Amino acid sequence: MAAPQAKSCTAVHSHWILMAILMCDETLSVWFKHGICVNYRGSNVHHYRQMIAAASPGRWLHRNLYRILPYKVIPLPCPAAGCGVTTSCCPNSVPTPLHLSLAGSAGCGCMSGTYLLTYSPTGGSFGGPAWVGSAAACSRSIAFIFECAQGVRWQWHLTITTGPFEIVKNVNDDTSTCDPFLQTYSGLNVFTFSGACSGSVSATVTS
Q1: The pTM is what?
Q2: Rounded distance, CA 35 to CA 21, Å?
Q3: For residues 172 and 79, is the Cβ–Cβ distance under 8 A?
Q4: Bridge partner list, 193
Q5: Is residue 139 left, alpha or beta, with left meaning phi > 0 and alpha meaning psi from -120 to 50?
Q6: pLDDT tens digits for the chain (207 residues)?
Q7: Which long-range CB contacts under 8 A does 120-123 form with residues at least 24 apart?
Q8: For residue 55, how many C-alpha atoms fall within 13 Å in the half-sphere facing its CB?
Q9: CB 156 within 8 A of CB 89
């Protein structure tokens, strides 16, 4: 399972608490000075705000959460990595930066490499959310669009554009996974080019 992620990690003045942590699911976690980090199930953003505003965060915790809400020990999610994006293609959130790795064969070895994809709420093929990127390869300026789209079913679509007359799109392999995030394009789902290069390219998208 993916480690829990945090929106914000805020240091507090306390004899026994280091940080109040707002998680990506809007719950409150607390990092204690003895090294343990716990998440209070059923808490919310209001608990987080009240704790960081309290004159005595430790006393506030004892009065408002201790023996009131259940808790679970979790790995420390700080420094905050930020929260991912919810899609119809995965039950878990997807990180906003992703990495696209291309492996070209035959005459398309010039396209091989790893490229950064960044989240854009309007970067998709039809103006919807997507992860987008670009690279100089094969003597071309190449653009990438990675998006969750519905065809026969919801799948991850990857579009590679090498120019106005060469736009190649494929869907991810059925063996791809969401947690860990690993979307592959191989076998029948490889990209075949004849303009920027002549050959095929397999792809992998990871966090």
Answers
A1: 0.68
A2: 14
A3: no
A4: 199
A5: left
A6: 456 789 899 999 999 999 999 998 889 999 999 999 999 999 999 999 999 999 999 999 999 999 999 999 999 999 887 788 889 999 888 988 899 999 999 899 999 999 999 999 999 999 999 999 999 999 999 999 999 999 889 999 999 999 999 999 999 999 999 988 999 999 999 999 999 999 999 999 998
A7: 123/147
A8: 0
A9: yes
